[in-house]
Write a structure and sequence with these properties.
Length: 151
């Protein structure tokens, strides 16, 4: 139990050192350029064994510049900031097939959903119960949220 609390404390400290640019929707100052994306809360949360993560690219739903492509990556990290997984895009859209890992792919303006089966990257082993962070990076701007895995 003592080790679990120390891992949580380390994770909280790691959150403090992650880049804060574009952290949340609605946090922009007047006159600043609109963010390239928004990240929703995963559902269900807490979850076991799988979850979905909604996210928006560009200025959806209006999409005034519908032809522009954004470089998108979505990753899941444990509290030690170690990469745990790369979710896949659910459904597919345009030139992106459903089930494709969200790793440096080009997406147009719109609303998307990512799927994560709750397993470690490239394995069939389920992740441990605990708090995880997921980070959406759109054209170099990062948005981070947390999720809970409960078994």
């Amino acid at each position: 139990m003592r080790f679990r609390w120390s891992a949580i404390a380390i994770g909280v400290l790691a959150l403090g050192f992650m880049p804060r640019q574009g952290m949340a929707q609605g946090s922009q100052q007047p006159g600043q350029k609109q963010s390239a994306g928004q990240l929703g809360q995963n559902y269900p949360n807490p979850f076991n064994p799988e979850t979905r993560i909604p996210f928006t690219i560009g200025d959806a739903p209006s999409c005034q510049d519908g032809g522009k492509q954004y470089r998108v990556t979505l990753r899941v990290y444990n509290l030690l900031a170690q990469l745990a997984a790369v979710p896949v895009i659910q459904g597919g859209s345009g030139n992106v097939a459903g089930g494709q890992p969200l790793e440096n792919i080009l997406l147009t303006c719109g609303q998307y959903t990512a799927y994560w089966d709750g397993k470690y990257l490239n394995t069939q082993q389920e992740v441990a119960s605990g708090i995880y962070m997921y980070a959406l990076e759109v054209d170099g701007k990062r948005i981070v949220k947390k999720m809970i895995v409960m078994k």
